[in-house]
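We were asked to recover a plausible sequence for a given structure. The inputs and outputs are reproduced exactly as logged, with field labels preserved.

PROBLEM: sequence recovery
POSITIONS: 227
GIVEN STRUCTURE:
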């Protein structure tokens, strides 16, 4: 597995300013100041859709890619923990992991650097929370894998079946719509499926914070002791 560190830098947020690209046809809102970063940094943009259908919000993050200096035993431990996550997330399109990206930086910069299209980790949490909520089994505004794991257990005991799709009558998820229930889960009882949160909690208990999971890449927060 390839390991890399993305050290991230972000500029200050500002009141969004409407700007246009070179051909004057594609306006967007710029929501931050340019990041200040060391030489060799690559500037990447992050785009958020506008819920009212207007121009999107664009923010920038500067990333310096570095070699990972994690001790061999710690690297082996995270690879083993991640390998246990892959099978239970296969329904979400996760395959054997080829890249492990460790992000580090101030909170906003880290958050921007960690963003990935196709991240299934957030979608997993949202699907479980929504279905648990529909059956009166959710834990309110509690977040994280530990809360979702409790909801999963409640749904399994209550013989809850995953629906074909989630409804979003109040437009809570904006223009992208509600998360999609993976095909392998549709019309399946929760108790028949493998609990996806057990390996996620094991990963966290080993000291590794998984931020995003997309395709063959895992994005984790680089522990302060290793940064």
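RECOVERED SEQUENCE:
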């Amino acid at each position: 597995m390839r390991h890399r560190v993305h050290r991230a830098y972000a500029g200050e947020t500002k009141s969004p300013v409407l700007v246009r690209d070179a051909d004057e046809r594609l306006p967007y809102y710029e929501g931050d100041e340019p990041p200040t970063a060391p030489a060799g940094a690559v500037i990447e943009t992050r785009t958020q859709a506008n819920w009212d259908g207007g121009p999107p919000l664009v923010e920038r993050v500067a990333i310096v890619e570095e070699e990972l200096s994690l001790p061999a035993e710690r690297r082996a431990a995270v690879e083993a923990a991640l390998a246990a996550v892959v099978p239970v997330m296969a329904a979400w399109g996760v395959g054997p992991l080829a890249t492990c990206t460790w992000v580090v930086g101030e909170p906003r910069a880290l958050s921007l650097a960690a963003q990935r299209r196709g991240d299934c980790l957030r979608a997993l949490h949202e699907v479980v929370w929504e279905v648990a909520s529909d059956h009166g089994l959710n834990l309110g505004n509690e977040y994280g894998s530990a809360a979702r794991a409790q909801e999963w257990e409640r749904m399994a005991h209550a013989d809850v079946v995953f629906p074909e799709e989630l409804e979003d009558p109040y437009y809570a998820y904006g223009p992208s719509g509600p998360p999609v229930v993976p095909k392998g889960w549709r019309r399946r009882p929760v108790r028949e499926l493998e609990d996806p949160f057990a390996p996620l909690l094991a990963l966290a208990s080993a000291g590794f914070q998984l931020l995003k999971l997309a395709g063959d890449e895992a994005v984790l927060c680089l522990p302060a002791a290793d940064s």
